[in-house]
Specification:
single chain, about 280 residues, alpha/beta, D-Maltodextrin-Binding Protein, domain 2, Alpha-Beta Plaits, 5-stranded mixed β-sheet, about 30% strand, binds adenosine-5'-triphosphate, binds zinc ion
């Protein structure tokens, strides 16, 4: 039987979350043996631990069948793979930043300037789309120090909180690309490998959906039941059971995490009591 080869980042910002998500799909493998490849015990996948920059290449060439990589790295690599699923973690943005004391009104201010970056392709596309000509200096790390040491007038780099920029005397001028981790696949997977992938996707989606929802259980006085039920719409209409205590019912439902606190407040105001909220492990529609 064939096994699907999944590439993930060996060590870095995407490693822990990638492993966590695979484990939550009830797929387990020996942890950190230091090996490049390891086999899952209970699912037909082998896991390859790679540098993130190598993942698009390996998936394109079929060394790996699928991989989890940042969209920033994928787009910059220009490799031909299929995008399968956004993973919901590893979120960051690629931004242009300039010295704090530079007066910056628009991208036009960067015309003729030199910009240091590790993302020349994404930056060039952005500049072209704005019809701006600038000098791109490719450097592979510590891009943020370039203006300080006179290597460039501006930079284009990954920003999450902006504190690295600040400590290097820079300010964010323009967001040019939003990124998150993404699952990609080789363009020519065998039918058998595609079946394994679909199986994995089914699990991944159930886990991701579960993370966005909570199971809620509450006691409602019967006279407020209609109001409370109207506050709990969504995928499943709530389950209502008569309660041992006269005049009360027990209500179960699934609510999304998004407007969770607001919902709880409204339910309480409508008369709900003993509100119990629990995480969901898997959610399948
Ligand atoms: P490798 O050794 O595998 O080449 P790396 O140093 O290039 O690792 P990391 O810094 O671990 O890469 O980042 C991996 C990915 O995590 C980035 O390409 C990006 O998609 C994502 N990411 C999320 N938040 C951030 C952040 N604050 N800074 C940098 N990358 C981030
Ligand atoms: Zn890298």
């Amino acid at each position: 039987m064939q096994r699907l080869k999944l590439a993930i980042q060996k060590k870095g910002r995407l490693s822990d979350e990638s492993i966590k998500l695979i484990n939550e799909c009830d797929i387990s493998f020996p942890s950190s043996t230091g090996k490049l490849v390891t086999s899952a015990y209970d699912f037909p996948i082998d896991i390859l631990f790679l540098r993130d920059d190598d993942i698009p290449d390996y998936v394109q060439d079929g060394v790996a069948d699928i991989g989890i990589v940042g969209e920033n790295v994928l787009v910059e690599s220009d490799k031909k793979v299929d995008e399968v699923l956004k993973m919901g973690f590893g979120k960051c943005r690629l931004s242009l930043a300039v010295p704090r004391n530079m007066e910056y009104k628009s991208v036009a201010d960067l015309a003729g300037k030199s910009i240091a970056t590790s993302y020349p392709k994404i930056l060039q596309q952005f500049l072209d789309s704005k019809n701006i000509k600038a000098d791109i200096h490719v450097i592979s790390g510590s891009v943020e120090i370039a203006p300080g040491i006179g290597l460039a007038d501006a930079i284009c780099d990954i920003v999450s909180t902006g504190s690295t920029l600040l400590s290097n005397g820079l300010k964010e001028a323009e967001q040019i690309f939003q990124s998150e981790a993404i699952l990609v696949k080789n363009k020519n997977l065998s039918t058998e490998k595609n079946d394994i992938l679909n199986n994995l996707l089914f699990r991944l989606e159930a886990v991701k959906r579960a993370q966005k929802n909570k199971y809620i259980l509450l006691n409602a006085p019967n006279e407020s039941l209609d109001k409370i039920i109207s506050l709990l719409p969504g995928i499943n209409s709530p389950t209502v059971q008569a309660f041992a205590k006269e005049g009360w019912s027990s209500v179960h439902s699934v609510i999304t995490e998004k407007d969770f606190w607001e919902k709880i407040q409204q339910l309480k105001e409508a008369g709900a009591e003993g509100i119990l909220v629990m995480p969901i492990e898997k959610l399948i529609y």
